[in-house]
From TrEMBL:
This is C2 domain-containing protein. The lineage of its organism: Eukaryota, Viridiplantae, Streptophyta, Embryophyta, Tracheophyta. SUPFAM superfamilies: C2 domain (Calcium/lipid-binding domain, CaLB), vWA-like. The keyword DNA damage does not apply. GO terms for molecular function: calcium-dependent phospholipid binding; metal ion binding. Pfam families: C2, Copine.
Length: 546
């Protein structure tokens, strides 16, 4: 493991973080495909990467390699999908970051790999911000995903070549090899959090204490050791305690799967010294924590022609060990939770006369949708999939019905008693009809529709129904009853309700962001009560359209 990357010397950004990170591929893809009649076999594949005998492009040190992964689309377009961390001073890197991809057996999924030497001046920059044209190419390769997963050990070794040489010459110059290892992911929601420490580490430096860090690797069936996690480097410390590390059970296989925990002394030249190691499973580490007794490190030592494990006085301790189960959106759906969609539309006069083309409510005879219709369709199309009866409460606000006062929550279908319409088409028809049966007025008040939605959610909760409600509010301007709206939102924060506010038109919606507590400050009511959670998401439609 002399090539393990590190976070010291001002190079934290490019060389990766503390815990292992994977490229995300949503578990919901399978459900999405099936909802559209596509029933192909879909597995999640985790790809690990290592390379050997890379070209040395640095003058005074070795290359600092990073791998970039691309997918070649059916139309020939090449799209970047993933970058590893940078491994410092290594011609034989083993990257820790993994890429997860959905595997379709019936589709040829072409992957392109390109290894770059990251110039020293860019090592302070986050990997995702690096400009690839400013880095030196160490070689590239390509294959189909099916080529990897059909190998007996699911590992494929590819020759790295330079692009110009692979085109202009039938025999390309040797530029090293890239090995790609595939494992099928099995979903696990359990994450183990550990705080590790060591005692009495042996010094590897002549004039100072060691600079230790840990690398945690899993052992696969073929005997290959694959790094999954590493700690930060602690300077001059014989008794280090590292920050907590997080391991998903999926990452390591199972709680009883063998793990190798190696303690290294960091060296800036990339040749890190192995201080010692232990081989334990997560279950073993939990027992070490419970027993409060450390585990002696050992160091493989060559005795004659045999390799023996020399037991060291240095010990590994597990200061904290805990497990948490994180339930996902799909877990709730599998448990029977149903999403219910509701919509409220702004009919205030600031939208303009709906009979004129410059109005946000203008109904184009050609069939071209206005901003309100687009927002209804784009949000509703997603949410209606999860709503079994597809009957949606739909309201308007800020208008004067025929021969009546201004209403800040009226049924969009014109009924006095029934607020639901059938499907997205029903919302569209009720919306168009309302434009010819109300007079646009004002002001812009949200409190009434929020309270109406909250009442429906609270009634459902009282009936112990497994329902979660999403209210879409579409508006063209800043809310007038800001404090009343805050009071309603704080009161509703205990209910199974979320609110998506979409701003249409060219107004300045900065004040609307007050209702969206994304910056960490939860809403507070006029009585001083703080919202139990953030239930509002505000987005200008012009930023997310399509």
């Amino acid at each position: 493991m002399g090539n393990c990357c590190s976070d010291v010397g001002g190079r934290m950004a490019a060389v990766g973080g503390t815990a292992a990170i994977t490229g995300n591929q949503s578990d919901a893809v399978d459900m999405y495909l099936k909802s559209r009649g596509i029933h192909g076999i879909l597995s999640q594949i985790e790809l690990s990467f290592s390379a050997t005998n890379l070209r040395d492009r640095d003058v005074f040190s070795k290359s600092d390699p990073m791998l970039v992964v691309y997918i070649k689309e059916r139309d020939g377009a090449v799209i970047e999908v993933f970058r590893t961390e940078v491994v410092l001073n290594s011609l034989n890197p083993t990257w820790i970051k993994k890429y997860t991809i959905a595997y379709h057996f019936e589709v040829v999924q072409t992957l392109l790999f390109h290894v770059f030497d990251v110039d020293t001046q860019f090592l302070n920059i986050e990997v995702k911000m690096l400009k690839l044209e400013e880095q030196q190419s160490l070689g590239e390769a390509s294959c189909a995903l099916s080529e990897i997963v059909t190998k007996p050990n699911r590992s494929l070794t590819l020759d790295l070549v330079r692009r110009v040489e692979s085109v202009s010459s039938t025999h390309s110059q040797h530029h090293g090899k890239l090995t790609v290892h595939a494992e099928e992911c099995f979903s696990s929601r359990t994450t183990a959090e550990m705080m590790l420490s060591c005692l009495d580490l042996e010094s590897k430096d002549l004039f100072s204490k060691c600079d230790p860090f840990l690398v945690i690797s899993k052992l696969v069936e073929s005997g290959i050791s694959i790094p999954v996690c590493k700690t930060e480097v602690l300077k001059n410390d014989h008794n280090p305690t590292w920050k907590p590390v997080f391991l998903n059970i999926q990452q390591v296989g199972s709680k009883d799967s063998p793990l190798v925990i190696e303690c290294f002394n960091f060296n800036s030249n990339g040749k890190h010294d192995l201080i010692g190691k232990v081989q334990k499973s997560l279950a073993d580490l939990e027992k070490i924590h419970s027993g409060r007794e450390g585990e002696n490190l050992f160091l493989p030592t060559l005795v004659g022609h045999d390799c023996e494990n020399k037991i060291l006085k240095s010990k590994l301790f597990v200061e904290n060990f805990s497990e948490t189960i994180q339930h996902t959106f799909l877990d709730y759906l599998a448990g029977g939770v149903e999403l219910n969609f509701m919509v409220a539309i702004d009919f205030t006069a600031s939208n303009g006369n709906p009979r004129l083309p410059d109005s946000l409510h203008y109904i184009d005879p050609s069939g071209r949708q206005n901003a309100y219709q687009k927002a209804i369709y784009e949000v509703g199309e997603v949410l209606q999939f999860y709503d079994t009866d597809k009957c949606f409460p739909a309201w308007g606000f800020g208008a004067r019905p025929i021969d009546g006062p201004v209403s800040h929550c009226f049924n969009l279908n014109g009924s006095n008693n029934y607020c639901k319409v059938e499907g997205i088409r029903g919302i569209m028809m009720a919306y168009t009809s309302a434009l010819f049966n109300v007079s646009l007025a004002g002001p812009t008040l949200f409190g009434h529709v929020v309270n109406k939605a909250a009442l429906i959610a609270s009634q459902s909760l009282a009936d112990e129904a497994q329902k979660y409600f999403v209210l879409l509010i579409i508006t063209d301007g800043v809310v007038t009853d800001l404090q009343e709206t805050k009071d309603a939102l704080v009161k509703a924060s205990d209910l199974p309700l979320s609110i998506l506010i979409v701003g249409v038109g060219g107004a300045d919606f900065k004040e609307m962001e007050i209702l969206d507590a994304d910056k960490g400050e939860r809403l507070e009511s006029s009585t001083g009560r703080v919202a139990s959670r953030d239930i509002v998401q505000f987005v200008p439609f012009r930023d997310v359209q399509g």
